[in-house]
Amino acid sequence: MKPIEQMQTPDPRNVEHWRADFPILGERVHGRPLVYLDNGATTQKPASVIYAENAYYRHSNANVHRGVHLLSQRATDSFEAARATIARFINAQRPEEIVFVRGTTEAINLVAQSYARPRIKPGDEILISAMEHHSNIVPWQLLCEQTGAALKVVPIDDTGALDADAYERLLSERTRLVAMTHLANALGSINPVERLVAASHARGVPVLLDGAQAIAHLPVDVHAIACDFYAFSGHKVYGPTGIGVLYGKAALLEAMPPWQGGGDMIRSVTFEKTEYNEIPWKFEAGTPNIAGAIALGAALDYVDSIGMEAIAAHENELLAYATDALRVIPGLRFIGTARDKASILSFVLDGVHAHDVGTILDHHGIAVRAGHHCAMPVMQRFGVPATVRASLALYNRHQDIDALIEGLGKVREIFGT
Ligand code: PMP
């Protein structure tokens, strides 16, 4: 990613155009205009994505890779075209390196069970960090239980940034895989992924990156990063739920056994022996989420039409505006202040539980997330039970932040803090 100062200057007029693409932003919540600041949980969908899903069911619905009839060919062409769009979006070398899955969680479990499990022995180590989402912790704990391997955790500092020296120290001759987030969902910290991958590769250790958050906020180039696996979910990048992507280097995917058995992942079956399909279909057992994949392609086309650099510049400007405005609220403490940070404002308010903050804000039409954000170890690291998290997307604007500030004023009035 380019340093922020080299990015395009955001044009505040754009945001109104972009907002017009998202029908749900016209909703009212408890009688107030919706202020949607829960994009880290899921993003809203532009009309082009809703249209793509609808048009598929109206004009092309059929099963893929099987029928000789026209609709099946249309469905297959659109499904495979979406795969090619995704490959281009993250700069994968070949569409076959894109495996459709349900989401980030499934992608990580696939790597744990299909790549790691056959290779891991007792005493081997998997390296993760202290800022991971549960989806990038629990699959590795399951793997450790199954194989006798050990989970090692790279610490983070008080700002929520990764301790890069500790990372290098913890990479040992026992490390078999690194699994690390690109952008931390509870903190907003951006990891220096190119550096981490280079250090890991120098020791012959492959790297999986959890891109669930990064995919919507940073330009992602898997070739430049040189990671071995990259996982993300469609719904966090303006696409539908139930569809996601595992990128894997072709040579690694080819060497991995299938994860699930069923239709579409086979070439031939007899009771004696089954021959598996080629990558990526080897990993896509059963009828896939065809409409979801096509709509995810439309979502990435939408993002491309604006440009990730323009989106990042807009969101960074908004993050700086929001940080300055929130910082002066008495009793507010940020959790996550790393220098390299994007899209996430996580905080606690003295004397008020995060859930109460979230509930009161909701009554003012403001959607934020309150809780542990599926990152309980992060909460433990900072000694808080929960935080309030406002998370940004391309359609957020200064008014949304002003509404949040006003809402927090109401919370403080109610609680007398
Ligand atoms: N990793 C991170 C960093 C996330 O933010 C999330 C979603 N909150 C996930 C993994 C899991 O994504 P999904 O639920 O779409 O599988």
Automatic annotation (TrEMBL):
GO terms for biological process: cysteine metabolic process. InterPro entries: Aminotrans_V_dom, Aminotrans_V_PyrdxlP_BS, Cys_dSase_SufS, Cysteine_dSase, PyrdxlP-dep_Trfase, PyrdxlP-dep_Trfase_major, PyrdxlP-dep_Trfase_small. Its EC number is 2.8.1.7. One of its GO terms (molecular function) is pyridoxal phosphate binding. Residues 35-404 form the Aminotransferase class V domain. Keywords: Pyridoxal phosphate, Transferase. Its cofactor is pyridoxal 5'-phosphate. It holds the Pfam family Aminotran_5. It is an enzyme of class 2 (transferase). It catalyses: (sulfur carrier)-H + L-cysteine = (sulfur carrier)-SH + L-alanine. Belongs to the class-V pyridoxal-phosphate-dependent aminotransferase family. Csd subfamily. Catalyzes the removal of elemental sulfur and selenium atoms from L-cysteine, L-cystine, L-selenocysteine, and L-selenocystine to produce L-alanine. This is Cysteine desulfurase. It comes from Paraburkholderia ultramafica.
